[in-house]
Amino acid sequence: MFQALKKLKRNKDGATAVEVAIVFPLLIMCLFVVLGVGVYMFGTHKAQRTVEQTAREARVLSEPTETELEALLDQNSTPPPMGSYQSDAVMLTQFGGEYARLIITYNFSFEVPFLDKLNLKSESVTEVKLREMPAI
């Protein structure tokens, strides 16, 4: 009986296959997470650049409305590789001038093998001064 156990202890056949079977799913999961985060960061950067570009274009418009600014945001934004953009514009009166707050919300979700679905959200916001308010 003891000789059979000693023989089994010395036998290393298949050890590499077992190690690969344990480590490989973890490597695949890490790869998917890194790729997903990269795509998410690209979409967030793209949204911020769109908001900044729209803010520059809004400065040259005369008396833009919220709907015109939202249409301009939609026109300048291209769909992200994964997820969706939602644009919004809000007119503000503050600091002696009229401002527009331009917002793009990026909703991103992806599935990672062996994990649940990951949902990420980011907002890209820029405020642009459209005109001075006359002094009273």
Description:
With 136 residues, the chain is an alpha+beta fold. The protein has one domain. 47% of the residues lie in helices and 31% in strands. The protein has a three-stranded antiparallel beta sheet. Strand 2 and strand 3 form a beta hairpin. The longest helix is centred in the first third of the chain and has 44 residues. The radius of gyration is 27 Å and the shape is rod-shaped.
What is the tally of beta strands? 3
Give a short account of the largest sheet: 3 strands, antiparallel
Number of helices: 3
- The strand line-up of the biggest sheet is 1-2-3
Task: Please give the domain count.
Answer: 1
Question: What is the string of SSEs from the N terminus onward?
Answer: HHHEEE
Write the layout of secondary structure elements.
Layout: H1 2-10, H2 15-58, H3 66-76, E1 84-94, E2 97-111, E3 117-132
Antiparallel strand pairs: 1-2, 2-3
What descriptors fit this protein?
3 helices; 31% strand; three-stranded antiparallel beta sheet; alpha+beta; 47% helix; 136 residues
Brief summary:
This protein has 136 residues and is of the alpha+beta class. The chain is built from three helices and three strands, in the order αααβββ. The longest helix has 44 residues.
